Amino acid sequence: MSNINGVTIQKGKVGANRRNVKRAVSALIIGSVASADLALNTPQTVYNIEDLEQYGITPEFDSTNNLNVYRHFSEFFRMAGAGTELHFMLVDQAETFGTILADASETMAKRLLAFAKHDVRQLGVCLNPDETPTPVDGLPDDALTAIAAAQGLYAWADENHMPLQIFLEGHNLSGAANVVPDLRDIENVKATKVTYVIGQDWAYAETKTGIAQKFADVGTVLGVCSAARINQNIGDNEEFDLTDATRNAWMVPGLSNHKKNDEVYSQLQTFEDKGYVFGLEYAGLAGVRINNDHVCAPIEIDQEGNMNEHTIAYGRILDDARRQLRTVYLPKIKKTYPVGTDGKLPVGVRTSLELVGDAVFGDMQNAAEISNGKTTIDPDSDIMVEKELIVGFNLQPTGVIGYLNGTINLKQRI
């Protein structure tokens, strides 16, 4: 029999979303006094600076209280762009990195990340201390424990399926580069998810007084990271110029000791070698760039060629792949599959399940986010009793030219 409709085309079901729309989602926790329109420890979400001002956080809020709160937000949106999703929380100035990040009461960092529904990919934490911290080896006395606490927060977040990168404000730098600790070699700490920022817009800091001058511009770095592709170095010289002459932004780079870069020029390479993040000017290139995408961990490669996440980009790409793979494999859980006479998955079924992961890697490769990726299912996976599918994923990231080392000669003929 025929159908008088002629042609019937129904809408198919849409499977797991493989389009990444949340990579720019960020969060900020800032030590502050309470705003007249916003209580402390109250998570909120904003998409532009106008949204923020509705909570009473304005340039006047900063100037009246001699704080750098509005500053971090305005820099974030300047670099990330209006419309970027930003979750935030103001906490008491008396809070330390340790209390904010460990968050035993789950009223600060953990609460904010849960409030954001697992979407946050990068978090900045700034203190605005009201007293000058005790210096140890040129850094505040809690700097190294703060880095460890931030890595601990990552571990908690990762266990709850919301991996992220964390940027700490390296405020009140007081030591020279040869004195401060090597963040790539902290004893008993390998904080692959933590970045320590000591750079500041010196001209802006000059408008502040006292301890407020010794801040680091985490909002700027967080905004760049939010805008960057997941495999992109936040110091990309071609794309991320921090300077904006029309806004008088980042005309003079400095460090959180409130010294201009040119005052400590001979120390900058050592700060770079030790894994600190700051603004940098290059001879022959106008503007200011972030020096590099450091994390507080050494570079490690094992005998099988496995690398650790020794840059922000490597950490972001690995976590993003894990998030995507979890999303596409979740619908496959608790489904029924045939088994062979040996009680194992047949080759055809294993291949189809491998293709699920390979499709994720294929999308990332087509987007030039990775160089390659491969999914391999263990043929001995026991889905009859243990009901466990054992899968191996290998991801080859893209590379970054850190510097160019060349030779040039005058030639009579070429």
Characterization of this structure:
With 414 residues, the protein is an alpha/beta fold. It has two domains: 26-290, Rossmann fold (3-Layer(aba) Sandwich), CATH 3.40.50; 312-397. The protein has helices at 49-53, 59-65, 70-80, 97-102, 109-115, 143-159, 202-205, 218-227, 268-273, 312-329, 347-366; strands spanning 26-32, 44-46, 86-92, 122-126, 135-136, 139-140, 165-169, 194-197, 199-201, 253-255, 259-260, 279-282, 285-290, 370-377, 391-397. It has a six-stranded mixed β-sheet, with helices on both faces. Helix 3 (70-80) runs parallel beside helix 8 (218-227) and helix 10 packs across helix 11.
List the helices and strands and how they pair.
Blueprint (H helix, E strand, L loop, with lengths): L25 E7 L11 E3 L2 H5 L5 H7 L4 H11 L5 E7 L4 H6 L6 H7 L6 E5 L8 E2 L2 E2 L2 H17 L5 E5 L24 E4 L1 E3 H4 L12 H10 L25 E3 L3 E2 L7 H6 L5 E4 L2 E6 L21 H18 L17 H20 L3 E8 L13 E7 L17
Parallel strand pairs: 1-3, 1-4, 4-7, 7-8
Antiparallel strand pairs: 2-3, 5-6, 9-10, 10-11, 12-13, 14-15
Helix pairs in contact: 3-8, 10-11
Short description:
By secondary structure, this protein is an alpha/beta fold. It is 27% helix and 16% strand.
Distance between the termini: 80 Å
- Rg of Cα set: 24 Å
Strand content: 15-25%
**Which percent bin holds the helix content?**
25-40%
Average pLDDT metric: 93
The coarse silhouette is: globular
CATH fold-type name of the largest domain? Rossmann fold
What's the domain count?
Answer: 2
Tell me the major beta sheet: 6 strands, mixed
Uncertain stretches of 5 or more adjacent residues: none
Structural class: alpha/beta
Name the CATH architecture of the largest domain: 3-Layer(aba) Sandwich
